[in-house]
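Bug #77: duplicate submission created two jobs. Keeping one. Sequence:
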Amino acid sequence: MQLVVARIGRAHGIKGEVTVEVRTDEPELRLAPGAVLTTDPASVGPLTIETGRVHSGRLLLRFEGVSDRTGAEALRNTLLIADVDPEELPEGEDEYYDHQLIDLDVVTADGTEVGRITEISHLPTQDLFIVERPDGSEVMIPFVEEIVAEIDIEEQKAVITPPPGLIDDRAEIASSREDASSREDASGREDVSSREES
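Kept job's structure:
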């Protein structure tokens, strides 16, 4: 399976280095010296990483055969693609590659169908599952322990225990209205009751 692991940015300096926008959680594995990556567009590659270093918080790479700024600039916006075994799992417990989560069926703990994961959004604070509902609408589900109870790759499903309102806004609004009207009824009865007593 092929996965995009980085996008080449602008040239850095005059010796062929480029900045890269990393698109993998394992750059030390996927973007290490000696790694051979296919490219998009394919005509640019394959590219072999010669050196890599971090400078001012950005990863800089130099590729074999690219030794000057002109060559580095010619690579700009090229996607770097790694071949990954689909069965391979990340090293950390409860970690998954995006391709393993895409297309999983999302169900609640009682088996109610929620939808299918179509995308993973990586935010600074947490990851979000973008889930397409059967009616075509989308819902975002935080990939956190409190909500995502289980990921079962073999069964191709994610089991969630969503808090009220996360997957059905309409139900939350309706229940709020019902609560408000029952409170009004209750307070109306109390008023009547107190008037009767006085």
